[in-house]
Amino acid sequence: MNLRLRDDQQEALKLRAEEEGRSMHALVLQAIDRYLEQETDRESVRRLGAKYANHHAGLLRRLGE
């Protein structure tokens, strides 16, 4: 896989890596891991929300009245 960054992204990533004393590669991997974790969490919340909304539909309807 090749990752093509805009010039401004490349420069910002380079500066951040230098500030943190880490490689650009390590920062990109961390960003990908965070994104994947957040999306997994969001999907879990969506599933649970749908499950409990369906399970408690009557109660939610009465609360809305």
How does this structure look, described?
This protein is mostly helical and 65 residues long. It is built from three helices and no strands. The longest helix has 32 residues, at 24-55. The protein is rod-shaped, with a radius of gyration of 21 Å. It starts with 6 loop residues before the first helix and ends with a helix. The mean pLDDT is 89.
Strand content: under 5%
Fraction of helical residues? over 70%
Query: Stretches where pLDDT falls below 50 for ≥5 residues?
Result: none
Derived from helix and strand composition plus strand pairing, the structural class reads: mainly alpha
Q: What summary fits the major beta sheet?
A: none
Topology, element by element:
Elements: H1 7-20, H2 24-55, H3 57-64
Give a summary of the structure in a few sentences:
By secondary structure, this protein is mainly alpha-helical. Helix content is 83%, strand content 0%.
What attributes characterize this protein structure?
0% strand, mainly alpha, 65 residues, single chain, 83% helix
